[in-house]
Write a structure and sequence with these properties.
- It is a single chain.
- It contains four helices and four strands, in the order ββααβαβα.
- It is an alpha/beta fold.
- The chain has one domain.
Protein backbone atom coordinates (compact mmCIF):
# COMPACT_ATOMS: atom_id res chain seq x y z
CA UNK A 1 0.00 0.00 0.00
CA UNK A 2 1.30 3.46 -0.88
CA UNK A 3 0.61 6.02 1.82
CA UNK A 4 0.60 9.37 0.07
CA UNK A 5 0.48 11.62 3.12
CA UNK A 6 1.53 11.27 6.75
CA UNK A 7 0.42 13.98 9.16
CA UNK A 8 1.31 13.81 12.84
CA UNK A 9 -1.37 15.80 14.63
CA UNK A 10 -3.40 15.86 17.81
CA UNK A 11 -6.55 16.62 15.82
CA UNK A 12 -7.27 14.00 13.13
CA UNK A 13 -10.58 15.54 12.21
CA UNK A 14 -9.10 19.01 11.57
CA UNK A 15 -6.47 17.47 9.30
CA UNK A 16 -9.13 15.50 7.44
CA UNK A 17 -11.21 18.66 7.05
CA UNK A 18 -8.18 20.39 5.48
CA UNK A 19 -7.85 17.47 3.03
CA UNK A 20 -11.57 17.61 2.36
CA UNK A 21 -11.21 21.17 1.02
CA UNK A 22 -8.71 19.79 -1.53
CA UNK A 23 -10.84 16.72 -2.33
CA UNK A 24 -14.45 17.84 -1.91
CA UNK A 25 -15.75 14.73 -3.68
CA UNK A 26 -15.02 12.81 -0.45
CA UNK A 27 -16.72 13.48 2.86
CA UNK A 28 -14.55 14.27 5.88
CA UNK A 29 -15.31 10.80 7.26
CA UNK A 30 -14.25 9.20 3.97
CA UNK A 31 -11.00 11.19 4.03
CA UNK A 32 -10.35 9.96 7.59
CA UNK A 33 -10.79 6.36 6.43
CA UNK A 34 -8.88 6.64 3.14
CA UNK A 35 -6.18 3.94 3.26
CA UNK A 36 -3.62 6.10 1.48
CA UNK A 37 -3.75 8.90 4.09
CA UNK A 38 -2.52 8.76 7.68
CA UNK A 39 -3.55 11.40 10.22
CA UNK A 40 -3.16 11.52 13.98
CA UNK A 41 -0.72 10.76 16.72
CA UNK A 42 1.86 8.03 16.17
CA UNK A 43 -0.31 5.68 18.24
CA UNK A 44 -3.41 6.52 16.19
CA UNK A 45 -1.57 5.97 12.92
CA UNK A 46 -0.29 2.60 14.12
CA UNK A 47 -3.87 1.65 15.00
CA UNK A 48 -5.01 2.81 11.55
CA UNK A 49 -2.37 0.69 9.83
CA UNK A 50 -3.23 -2.35 11.94
CA UNK A 51 -6.94 -1.92 11.16
CA UNK A 52 -6.18 -1.62 7.45
CA UNK A 53 -4.10 -4.77 7.60
CA UNK A 54 -7.06 -6.59 9.14
CA UNK A 55 -9.63 -5.08 6.77
CA UNK A 56 -7.75 -5.00 3.47
CA UNK A 57 -4.82 -7.36 4.02
CA UNK A 58 -2.18 -4.64 3.56
CA UNK A 59 1.02 -5.90 5.16
CA UNK A 60 3.58 -3.82 3.24
CA UNK A 61 3.49 -0.05 3.43
CA UNK A 62 5.39 2.42 1.25
CA UNK A 63 5.61 6.18 1.70
CA UNK A 64 7.01 8.89 -0.51
CA UNK A 65 10.52 10.03 0.42
CA UNK A 66 9.18 13.40 1.58
CA UNK A 67 7.03 11.57 4.16
CA UNK A 68 9.74 9.21 5.40
CA UNK A 69 10.96 11.31 8.34
CA UNK A 70 7.40 11.65 9.68
CA UNK A 71 6.82 7.92 9.14
CA UNK A 72 10.03 6.82 10.93
CA UNK A 73 8.51 6.64 14.46
CA UNK A 74 5.70 4.47 13.09
CA UNK A 75 8.19 2.09 11.46
CA UNK A 76 10.04 1.86 14.75
CA UNK A 77 6.90 0.97 16.68
CA UNK A 78 5.57 -1.51 14.11
CA UNK A 79 8.87 -3.28 13.55
CA UNK A 80 8.38 -7.00 14.01
CA UNK A 81 4.56 -6.91 14.14
Amino acid sequence: MLVQSVSITDDRRAEAEAWHTRSPNLSVDEVMEAPQLLFGSVTEMIEQLQARRERYGFSYVTVFEAELEKFAPIISELSGQ
